[in-house]
Design brief:
The chain is about 35% helix and about 15% strand. The strands form two sheets. The protein has a seven-stranded parallel sheet, with helices on both faces.
């Protein structure tokens, strides 16, 4: 099977788990003997090289600059769309894919989705967040014609670039959680015949670290965005013993790091807060082992959440708010402690409970390891392969699928 995958950020240039599961799926498909190409944006993290992974073309542009979705002028929109369609056409012509897989499409040219549909190439669209909602607003080309259907038709005839997207007939949709699927169904796009495939964690995190004596060392892993509840985590420190510390491993916008430092100073806990920046999988695995508990105090409705699962797999108790898709696997008192969002005192109280009760920590450790084992990369990647094979094998396509089976499928 020949597969063209399309999305915005692709490792090593990434900010979170969405991009990493894309890369993991690509590696799995290649190991299974499929020919796979990656078409993504040219966004690059400062000081980070592209790596030596073959078949990655960073030729796309998107409507995002300096950590913000910015407004483009008409000329820049047209230039962006033309460039992106040239890149897509080149890969469609050269690879002649049996199926196209769209990944994170926030800030992207959604006209690419429509171009693939009109070309008659089967597509599977993976939604690891609500890009089918906000992505339609950040796509400045199709948005421009949303209420100007006649102008859009004229532009299409003159430029050959789709001005609208038929999402209902674009392909098969696979959502990271039931929560995301329900939210997308509420958008009224006419999407049907969907599936859910939960993202899974790397085997690196399925190695429980030894139990440890409590030392008040707390850890947060992920993007440093206020929606993640990071300010609440800092505000919880004054309600804990003076020796309690929190380490943040992750990155996003340097301005958000500065804001987090200001919050720490305002609460008088700056010496107890450490910001490590972006870290590799291997380094994160070590950090889980070196800390007593992991905080996941998200304020927003998390689409899924890999961090709690990673922490569970490493045998560390988790304190979380259980918002959004993460509620589908977080169980208070069984594999984590749940607290109300935006409540630093409640967060601190849960940490105190853990500190005072080794038996509770042991119960959460056992429950967490059982949960983590249900959500792994091999399970997710097998799901991805099956969905692509099914799409490619529809009448008139060219795929010759190898034998494959995906456990745990949810339709």
């Amino acid at each position: 099977m020949r597969v063209l995958t399309v999305g915005n950020l692709y490792p090593p240039h990434h900010f979170g788990g969405y991009e990493q599961v894309w890369q993991s799926a690509v590696a799995h498909l290649r190991e299974r003997g499929h020919e796979v190409r990656v078409l993504c944006t040219g966004h690059r993290l400062p000081g980070v090289g592209d790596g030596d992974e073959p078949g990655v073309d960073r030729a796309l542009e998107w409507y995002w600059r300096d950590h913000e979705f910015v407004r483009f002028g008409l000329r820049d929109r047209l230039r962006t769309e033309r460039r992106n369609h040239r890149a897509l056409r080149r890969h469609l012509d050269q690879l002649r894919p049996d199926v196209v897989a769209f990944w994170s499409m926030g800030g992207m040219s959604h006209s690419l989705i429509e171009r693939v549909r009109r070309a008659g190439v089967p597509a599977v669209l993976f939604a690891h967040d609500l890009w089918l909602d906000y992505g339609r607003r950040t796509d400045q080309w199709t948005r421009m014609f949303a209420t100007r259907r006649r102008a859009g038709a004229v532009a299409e005839r003159a430029l050959g670039i789709p001005s609208r997207v038929d999402y209902a007939r674009a392909g098969r949709y696979v959502f990271v959680s039931g929560f995301v699927r329900r939210r997308v169904e509420e958008l009224g796009l006419g999407i049907a015949g969907t599936a859910v495939a939960h993202s899974g964690i790397d085997a690196l995190f399925l190695d429980p670290a030894a139990e440890r004596e409590w030392r008040w060392r707390l850890l947060y892993v992920g993007r440093l965005h206020p929606d993640k509840g990071i300010h609440d985590a800092v505000a919880a420190l004054p309600h804990l013993p003076d020796g309690a510390t929190i380490t943040f491993a992750g990155a996003w916008d340097p301005r958000e790091e500065e804001a987090l430092n200001r919050v720490a100073e305002e609460h008088g806990v700056a010496p107890r807060v450490t910001l490590l920046g972006q870290r590799t999988h291997e380094e994160i695995a070590v950090l889980y082992a070196e800390h007593d508990a992991v905080l996941f105090p998200v304020r927003w409705e998390e689409p899924w959440g890999l961090v709690p699962l990673e922490a569970m797999g490493r045998g560390r108790p988790v304190v979380a708010t259980g918002r959004g898709g993460s509620a589908e696997y977080l169980r208070d008192g069984a594999n984590c402690l749940l607290v109300a969002p935006e409540d630093p005192e409640a967060l601190a109280q849960a940490v105190r409970r853990l500190a005072a009760a080794p038996a509770l920590r042991g119960r959460l450790r056992a429950g967490g390891m059982q949960t983590a084992a249900l959500h792994t990369e091999p399970i997710f990647n097998a799901e991805v392969e099956c969905h692509l094979l099914e799409a490619a094998a529809r009448p008139g396509t060219r795929a010759t699928p190898p034998a494959a089976a995906a456990p745990g499928r949810t339709s």
